[in-house]
Amino acid sequence: MTVVICLANKILATKPNNLLLIKASSAKVLIKMSDDFVKIYYRNTDDVTCRILVLDKENNIIQDELSEYSSDGKHIADVVFAPDHITIIGMRQYTENGFKDFRRIGNELVLTQIQTNEWLEPEQKAKVSFYNANGDLVFYDIFEKDDDCGMVIVGSFDKNDTQFFWDDSPDEVKLLQSYSDY
């Protein structure tokens, strides 16, 4: 953690669940420690995460993720770099109603999945659909508004509209690859 601590001028809080929050000038740094790796979240003055650094237990860089925003604050993309800081190993490109994920396969970035969001009943019920690289529906989730905690998932359904639970999800669902492993 020396890399982070030397950037910081004040520790704001430590939490018992392996979280450490540090203030570095006007930005914040949140450190989350797990058994296998450490994730460092760098947040800007608006408390928006703009970089995520993943380290192994020996503080070697596993991956470095940067977020790109437009001048009006719209999230455009998340780009994941290999430890060499040059090679792009994954990318999430945000669209008007979801995102597209890409992973490095060989020497090129290849589309791995697409997610779309739509309101079934405005502000009350939503559908989040996941598609494979060919654009074929793999599964979707339905969310409904709960007055106490916001939007909550009410079910996950495969392409044939059969409900499933994550611990017993179809193989096709498990094969979808996100842009990042962490």
What does this structure look like?
This protein has 182 residues and is mainly β. It contains two helices and 14 strands, in the order αββββββββββββββα. Strands 1-2-3-4-5-6-7-8-9-10-11-12-13-14 form a 14-stranded antiparallel beta sheet. It is globular and about 45 Å long. Residues 1-16 have low confidence and may be disordered.
**Rg, nearest Å:** 19 Å
Query: Percent range for helical residues?
Result: under 10%
Largest sheet: 14 strands, antiparallel
Low-confidence stretches: 1-16
Helix/strand-derived category reads mainly beta
Mean pLDDT: 86
Distance between the termini: 18 Å
Number of helices: 2
> Beta fraction of the residues?
over 45%
Question: How many distinct beta strands?
Answer: 14
Instruction: Give the CA-based shape.
Output: globular
SSE run: HEEEEEEEEEEEEEEH
Strand order of the largest sheet: 1-2-3-4-5-6-7-8-9-10-11-12-13-14
Task: Describe this protein with a few key phrases.
globular, mainly beta, 182 residues, 14 strands, 14-stranded antiparallel β-sheet, 60% strand
